């Protein structure tokens, strides 16, 4: 039996007026996803415990079968693993976003305009982060460039007990009430602005009509996690396909392989087809494939209603359809799980910890259930502890 998980990050939502009181999942044309729910089953799963933040780190740990109450240490260490940083026990890793702020002279009075600096290119971002590292780094503070706006700071000898806010939670808000009370973090935030605001990269971006990456934003701290082997737990050899360092790092710590797909971007312009092709190829010598697609989440954060609907439709057409049809035509015995990790409601622009709809099709299923959406999922099996979803999917045990 082959097991395939398709995860549409942030795909779940609330009904909104601009869609006639429906959700993106209600209005999206997604015949293959609906068919999985129709022939198989659909239900709700609560991926985020009430006492943990509703981030993709917590939620994807759950979906991968790991109890975040036991294993969650923070987001950034997972991203660190993906780009090859081996954290020591004394290291704390932080996510560093390149962001766009408004133009007030007083840093505290600025507004968060864009948590991704117009999805700055990786090449531009590397120049800026390298400059920050040369200027603000030292023997115990090390900056590392990542992909697009997503980067890292490793602080040797730091505790994790610092109150920090994800920048995508405060789009359009004044940053004053969200600045850290940690003196070193606060100073880094202030000092980096004067390095970046007049940098030649930003001058070029402004000339080209793009937002400038005029500040870093530090958040998502954590220590190196210790995960049990996925293969030992489920007796399956597996791989993960994602454009996002967080998910790749989770694969590394779980002992799974990861596949880097050309053209995978983490937004709606990602190479959906290449992800499906990579998944089918991986199934030739793997029992388990986890395909993570970030696009719906990014659209939710950016309040892009039409693009979120489109992202769901592209997942259906270019990922689920070719995988489902190819495996069916080859008479391969397979099970497929499609789910979100958390909602990213268009009305809020940030994550919530509401339960999300999942759909499971197992080889030979021919039931007569409803379509895949939030309302129909309420009538199905409810799984109140997220990390048990994979147990139910693979072992039919919850």
Q: Can you put this structure into words, describing what you see?
A:
This protein has 398 residues and is an alpha/beta fold. The chain has two domains: 2-72 and 227-395, Alkaline Phosphatase, subunit A; 91-222, no CATH class. 35% of the residues lie in helices and 19% in strands. The protein has 15 helices and 13 strands. It has an eight-stranded mixed sheet with strand order 9-8-10-1-11-12-2-13, sandwiched between helices. Strands 3, 4, 5, 6 and 7 form a five-stranded antiparallel sheet that branches. The longest helix has 25 residues, at 305-329.
Fold blueprint:
Elements: E1 2-8, H1 24-27, H2 31-39, E2 41-45, H3 56-63, H4 68-71, H5 76-82, E3 91-101, E4 112-114, H6 122-136, E5 141-147, E6 150-156, H7 183-196, H8 200-207, E7 215-222, H9 230-234, E8 238-241, H10 245-254, E9 257-259, H11 272-282, E10 288-293, H12 295-301, H13 305-329, E11 334-339, E12 356-362, H14 374-377, E13 382-383, H15 388-395
Parallel strand pairs: 1-10, 1-11, 2-13, 8-9, 8-10
Antiparallel strand pairs: 2-12, 3-4, 3-6, 3-7, 5-6, 11-12
Give the tags.
Alkaline Phosphatase, subunit A; single chain; alpha/beta; 15 helices; 2 domains; 5-stranded antiparallel β-sheet; 13 strands; 398 residues
Strand percentage, roughly?
A: 15-25%
CATH-defined fold name of the largest domain: Alkaline Phosphatase, subunit A
> What characterizes the major β-sheet?
8 strands, mixed
C-alpha Rg (nearest Å)? 21 Å
State the end-to-end distance: 19 Å
Count of separate structural domains:
2
User: What's the number of helices?
Assistant: 15
The low-confidence runs, each spanning 5 or more residues with pLDDT under 50, are: none
Structural category: alpha/beta
Q: Tell me the strand order in the biggest sheet.
A: 9-8-10-1-11-12-2-13
Order of helices and strands: EHHEHHHEEHEEHHEHEHEHEHHEEHEH
The CATH architecture of the largest domain can be named as 3-Layer(aba) Sandwich
Report the principal-axis shape. Answer: globular
CATH superfamily of the largest domain: Alkaline Phosphatase, subunit A
Task: Work out the number of β strands.
Answer: 13
Average pLDDT for all residues: 95
- Multimerization state: single chain
State the helical fraction: 25-40%
CATH class division of the largest domain: Alpha Beta
């Amino acid at each position: 039996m082959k097991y395939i998980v398709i995860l549409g990050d942030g795909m779940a939502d609330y009904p909104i007026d601009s869609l006639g009181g429906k959700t993106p999942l209600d209005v999206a044309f997604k015949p293959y996803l609906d068919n999985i729910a129709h022939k198989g089953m659909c239900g709700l799963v609560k991926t985020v415990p009430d006492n943990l933040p509703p981030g993709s780190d917590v939620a994807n740990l759950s979906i991968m079968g790991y109890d975040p109450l036991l294993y969650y240490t923070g987001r950034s260490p997972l991203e660190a693993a993906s780009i090859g940083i081996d954290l020591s026990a004394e290291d704390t890793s932080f996510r560093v976003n390149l962001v766009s702020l408004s133009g007030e002279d007083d840093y505290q009075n600025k507004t968060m305009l864009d948590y991704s600096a117009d999805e700055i290119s990786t090449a531009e971002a590397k120049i800026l982060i390298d400059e920050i590292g040369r200027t603000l780094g030292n023997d115990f503070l090390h900056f590392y460039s990542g992909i697009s706006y997503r980067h890292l700071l490793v602080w040797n000898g730091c505790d994790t007990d610092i109150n920090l806010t994800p920048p995508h939670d405060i789009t359009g808000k004044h940053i004053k009430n969200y600045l850290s009370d940690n003196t070193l973090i606060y100073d880094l935030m202030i000092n980096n602005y004067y390095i970046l605001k007049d940098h030649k990269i930003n001058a070029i971006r402004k000339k080209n009509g793009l937002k400038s990456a005029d500040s870093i934003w530090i958040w998502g701290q954590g220590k190196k996690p210790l995960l049990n082997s996925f293969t030992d737990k489920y007796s399956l050899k597996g791989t993960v396909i994602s454009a996002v360092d967080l998910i790749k790092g989770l694969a590394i710590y779980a002992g799974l392989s990861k596949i880097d797909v050309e053209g995978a971007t983490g937004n709606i312009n990602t190479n959906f087809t290449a992800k499906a092709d990579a998944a089918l190829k991986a199934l030739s010598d793997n029992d388990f494939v986890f395909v993570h697609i970030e696009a719906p989440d990014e659209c939710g954060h950016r309040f892009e209603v039409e693009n979120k609907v489109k992202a769901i439709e592209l997942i259906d057409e270019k990922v689920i359809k070719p995988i489902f049809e190819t495996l069916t035509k080859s008479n391969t015995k397979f099970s497929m799980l499609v789910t979100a990790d958390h909602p990213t409601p268009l009305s809020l622009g940030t994550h919530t910890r509401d339960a999300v709809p999942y759909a499971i099709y197992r080889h030979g299923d021919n039931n007569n259930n409803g379509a895949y959406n939030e309302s129909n999922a309420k009538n199905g099996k409810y799984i109140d502890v997220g990390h048990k979803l994979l147990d139910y999917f693979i072992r039919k045990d919850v």
